[in-house]
Each structure stands twice: as C-alpha cells, then as structure tokens.
Amino acid sequence: MKKPSKLEAINLDAYYGDFHALKSINVAMEEKAVTAFIGPSGCGKSTFLRTFNRMNDYIDGFRIDGQILLDGRDIYANDVQVDELRKEVGMVFQKPNPFPKSIFENVVYGLRIQGIKDKKILQETCEKSLRQAAIWDEVKDKLDKSALALSGGQQQRLCIARALAIQPSVILMDEPASALDPISSAKIEELIYELKKDYTIVIVTHNMQQAGRVSDYTAFFYMGELVEYAKTKTMFTSPHDTRTQNYITGRFG
Amino acid sequence: MRVQEKIIESLLWLSAAITILITISIVWVLLSESVLFFSEVSLVRFLTEKEWTPLFADKKFGILPLVAGTFLTTVIAIAVALPIGLTIAIYLNEYAHARFKTYIKPLLEVLATIPTVVYGFFALTVVTPFLQSFIPGLAGFNALSAGIVMGIMIIPMISSLSEDAISAVPRSLREAAYGMGSTRLQTAFGVMVPAASSGILVSVILAISRAVGETMIVAIAAGQQPRLTLNPFVPIETITTYIVQVSLGDVPHGSLEYRTIFAAGMTLFVFTFILNNLSFWIKKKYQEKYD
Ligand SMILES: Nc1ncnc2c1ncn2[C@@H]1O[C@H](COP(=O)(O)OP(=O)(O)OP(=O)(O)O)[C@@H](O)[C@H]1O
Ligand SMILES: [Mg+2]
Q1: Nearest CA to CA, how far is B204 from chain A (Å)?
Q2: Cα–Cα distance, B194 to B186 (Å, whole number)
C-alpha cells in the first residue's frame, strides 16, 4: 500500500529576480521515506530544498509561483507562521554550524526559544536527541564544553541532534556529509537510515553511491527542471531519460 | 628608481619614528612632572583624600572627586549609548534592507563629526532645561545632561563597531537559528549578539575610553566643582575639565598647583591606556576564534 505523501510541490516555479531557477516542478514525497535530490551543480537542488522550510524568504528578489504542501496544507499561505513551520520542518546544512555555545545549549536551543525552562525536560530531550543522533557516547561527559571543540563529523551529528530536539516531522539535509571525512560520512548515512523510521527525510547529495545507499526515492534535476523522479532502485538500474542516465553514469555534471 | 624608493621608504620610516617619538615625549613629560608632584604630595594622600582643592588656601589633593565625576558622566553616557547603539546595530543587521543600510550608516557617523562644543551647548541650553521641567532639583550644571549628550555623541561609535561585529558572524549561524524556528528577535539576541559579544565589548570599551577623555561637553554643561558624589543632579568636575580649567587659568608654571594637572593627566592616561589595551587584547582573542 502506498503511504500518504508528506510533502508535495505543485506547479512550482522559483525565481531569483529575473533568473528562473525552478521550472514547474511537480513532485510528491512519501512519509517516512528518504528522498534524494541529485543533479549537476547549479541545477536548483538547494533552491528547491529550501522552499520546504521557506529558507529562501530572506533572499532579496526571490519569489515562487505554485504551491508547496506539507500534510496537504500550503506552507506559503498567508496565515502560515514561518517560525512554526520550521519547527515542523528541520534543516541540516552542508557545513556544520553549531552555535558558539556549549553542547548542551546547542541541543536545547530549540526548546529554549519555545520558552521551555524545566531542567528535567531539557536534560531528557538533550540525552534523547544526542542518542538519536548517535553521538551521545562521545559527548556525554562534556556536555558543558563548547560545541566548537568537536570534530567536523561530531559537529554535524550535533546539528542533527539539535534539529531532532524540537521533534520535527521532516528533516531537510543539504549535502550533510560533503564536508566530512569518509568515516564521519558513513556515520551520517547510518544515522539517516535509522531516522527514516520516524522522519520524512529529503537529502541533497552529489555522491551517487550515497544516494543509492540511503534513499528510497531519487529526483534528478537538470537546469531547474525535474527530469526524473522514481524509486531509487529503478532510477539507478533503468533510468528513463538519457540525461539521467548520463548523469548517474558520470558522463557529465 | 631605486633612489626614489629609498626616499619613500625613509619618509615612511620617519613619520613612524616621529609618531613614536611624540608619544614617548608626552609620556615622559607626564611622568617627570608627576614625579615632582608626588615628591610633595604622597601617592596615598592623592588616592585617599576625599577633596580636591589644590587652588584654594586649604589645599586638598584627593583625586577621587575627579575620578567620581569622570566615572559618573561615563556611566551615564554608556547607559545611553549602549542600548541605542546596539539596537541600531541589530536593526541594521537583521531588519533593514541593504540599500537603506548603505545610506543610514554614513548618516549616523555624522553624529561623531559634530564639534563637541556644539554638543556642550546643546546639553546646557536644551537638555538641561528640558530635564528640569520634570526633575525639579536638577542644577543648571549637572552630570546628567552632560552624560546623556556625551552618550548621544558616542552612539555611532558603538552602533558602527557593533554592526561590524555582528555582520562578521558567519551567515551559517543565522541560518541555523532561523532553521530552528527562531524569530528575528530570537535570532538577533539569542545567537547573533552572543556570537558577536567580544566585538561588541570592544566597541563599548573604546566608547568608554572616548567618554573618559571627553572634555568640552562636561566643561560646558557639568559645572566645575570637584565633588565626591554619584548624584547625577548636581555640578561635578571630571579629570579632563580640571586640566582645562587650570591650563586656561593663571597658575604659575612650575608651581605645585600647576603640577596637579600632570598628576591628573597621568591618572587619565593610566585609565585610557588600560582600556585600550583591554580592547586590543579582546580583539586579538576574538580574531583567533573565527580564523
Ligand atoms: N541568492 C541567489 N541569488 C541569485 N541566484 C541564485 C541565488 N542562489 C542560487 N542562485 C542560482 O540559482 C541556481 C540554482 O542554485 P542552487 O543553489 O539551488 O543549485 P544547487 O543545485 O544546489 O547547486 P550545488 O550542487 O552547487 O549546491 C544557480 O544557477 C544559482 O546561480
Ligand atoms: Mg546546493
């Protein structure tokens, strides 16, 4: 049985000023599955990903046409509170970006801004999120130490823990492992595999093997268009479009 | 070609040397005159006596009243300039459009170019009467108006330097904050300001150093009465105004009265020297953090 779609883009066009960055994209993403966005540099993967938590709102001249639905609701509707939306749709960035605060304060940041002060809740959430992000054992003895003292890979898992702490239902990841060494990268992949039991995950990656390993569905973008969207296995074994084929076999991009 | 370069090089060297030489001679004059002063008045008296009356028959040489006056006006100035300056910095960074920012920043800096005499008269003839309308006990000369106006003068210093510090915070941190569902306000105060805190601190220290050394505004608006008090409603005197007062008066050169200004100057120098080094030290630490 097909699971309901969690995220959906309907006739989505996006513009940076005059530049047409995304061209009538239609796609529906399944709940509690991993969808990978692939495509050559500059094709619009990040732009598309960032429409799901409206991270592009701050860019001067950026605008969209069409709709983005989260659980069937249009997130660009007037009555949507962007900060509330982002508690539902978490994001992990390419470069680990922990706050210059302690590890503990990083994880509970999202709770603090919601006004939660209860020490017990904060501590429990902190431990739970760090365990989920598979970094608890490495940091449990130094929660009050600066997050900036961690390695890049640890910082990235900390950022994932920070995103998990506010219990979003969707996690957007923009090349989360591209700045990391192979071992840290593998850890992030394992983590994604674990997380999809509870979360809907959308990940941008340039690494075909990674897309193949972690994702259930893959979307291939080319020059602002969604060329092909299919089950990852199908796409990697028998791509429809020659552009997809060329890309995944490494012939361009 | 080579000769030309040699000439330029030696000119540059010369100007650097002259600067250093001038600094050294200032410190030397300060030191030597202060030494003469302290050979007549003990350092203990200087630091512990509660009155400063070197020009009267009954001479007292306690620097504390002048330090208190300086401290009082400086605190008032910072209390005005820090919240306003920081608010402006945050506004420019988090809310204002880039275009607006390029216009407003130089405009703000105009505040810093107004001659301090003008500020002094503004304090005396506008701010004081205005404050008197709801603070009945306020004297015509007082620390409050002088401090407030001094604060206005150093707003651009704090806003400009803090703005630089906040915009030096990596964009990724702002995105992290927004990505977690922070509002603009939460992003500004919960993430950007703390991350820029060392830079903001430097701006405050430089502003303090500026306020401590400010002369004209206090000379005009705060009165010239050394008084060991933290009451902002009465006339006081700061270290700088005392120095001006004596320099302009007819105190004979070489007398003890005359040397008091070097002792006072030395005190001022020690304060600003410490402050500037502090800011230098913080700046260095902060740069290491982001490199
Ligand atoms: N802030 C911006 N202003 C103007 N144009 C932009 C902006 N951000 C991105 N673009 C343009 O939009 C297009 C898509 O960019 P996007 O960052 O989404 O690509 P991407 O697929 O994520 O690339 P990469 O794999 O290199 O990260 C590019 O051509 C880029 O130049
Ligand atoms: Mg990208």
Answers
A1: 21
A2: 11
Q: Which of A12, A15, A16 to mutate to test the pocket of ligand 1 (most atoms within 8 A of CB)?
A: A16
Domain annotation covers residue B34: yes
| Helix, coil or strand: residue A187 | helix
In the block, tokens 């097909």 appear at A2
Give the rounded percent of residues in chain A with a pLDDT score beyond 70: 98
Q: Do B190 and A112 touch (CB under 8 A)?
A: yes
Query: Chain B contacts of A84, Cβ < 8 Å?
Result: 181
* Protein residue whose Cα sits closest to atom 25 of ligand 1: A41
The overall longest dimension of chain B from CA atoms, in Å, is 73
- Closest ligand 1 atom to residue A39 Cα is 21
Task: Give the Cα separation of A89 and B181 in Å (integer).
Answer: 9
pLDDT of residue A11: 96
- In this structure, is residue B135 part of a structural domain? yes
B230 is a domain residue: yes
Residues B30 and B139 in one domain: no
Number of domains in chain B: 2
Interface test with B, best of A97, A114, A156, A172 (most B CBs within 10 A): A97
Nearest CA to ligand 1 atom 16: A44
Residue A222: per-residue pLDDT: 94
Does B138 lie in the same domain as B235? yes
pLDDT in tens, B199-250: 999 999 999 999 999 999 999 999 989 999 999 999 999 999 999 999 888 8
Min CA distance, B87 vs chain A (Å)?
Answer: 20
CATH number, residue B169 = 1.10.3720.10
Say if residue B239 is in the same domain as residue B109: yes
Q: CA dihedral defined by B52, B55, B58, B59, rounded to 10 degrees?
A: 50
Nearest CA in chain B to A109: B180
Residue-wise pLDDT for B239-260, tens only, equals 999 999 998 888 888 899 999 9
Mean pLDDT computed over A210-234: 94
Report ipTM for this prediction: 0.90
| CATH class belonging to A5-248 | alpha beta
Following DSSP, what letter does each residue of A108-161 receive, concatenated? Answer: HHHHHTTT---HHHHHHHHHHHHHHTT-HHHHTT-TTSBGGGS-HHHHHHHHHH
Q: Is B290 or A173 the better-scoring residue by pLDDT?
A: A173
Q: Do B182 and A98 touch (CB under 8 A)?
A: no
Whether residue B188 is found in the same domain as residue B255: yes
Domain of residue B267: give its range.
64-290
Question: Cβ-count burial of B130 within 10 angstroms (0-12 exposed, 13-18 middle, 19+ buried)?
Answer: exposed
CA distance B121 to B255: 33
Say whether both B111 and B30 belong to one domain. no
Is A2 a residue whose pLDDT tops 80?
no
